[in-house]
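User: Sequence in, structure out. Go.
Assistant: Echoing your sequence, followed by the structure tokens.
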Amino acid sequence: MSLDALKDRLPDYARDLKLNLSSLAAEPLLSPQQKAGSFVVAALAANHAPTTRAVVGAFAAELSPEALNAAKIAASLMAMNNIYYRFVHLVHAADYKTLSAKLRMTAMAKPGVDKVDFELWSLVVSAINGCGMCLEAHEKVCREAGLSAEQIQAAVRIAATVHAVACTLAAEEALVPQLAAAA
């Protein structure tokens, strides 16, 4: 499925999402790799198969095999880390902050792309998963690497829009049986 086909599946009430997808697909603030990877990791994190297929279909060609793999690494590891570090952040017992996570995440050391791109993609997933501790850490690294607030915001706007598309389509799919039964 293409990005246009994905937009066509959105109901009329989600017109703003369609427009946001179009404008973000042409976002000039991010490099082509940063933009494509942000879309891919957002779709992977949103966990809706039709959205993931459409977004990966639309943006995978803009990524090298190594960059696509790095995006998958970011989505996979952040799915784990966001749960763990959100727990550490939200539980007010200070001793958890002093304990080692004891979770393997060695792929982060050499993900196959520039560190700043991997950090940006990790931030995108962390935004979707709502981990404040990870957001702060990845945003800091991105800023130190030279990304502007506007560039980071663009990536988070991609995360917000792709996630909203996935949620909207999943909700519409869930309503189909109810609507059919009511007819």
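User: And one key feature?
Assistant: DSSP finds nine helices and no strands in the chain.
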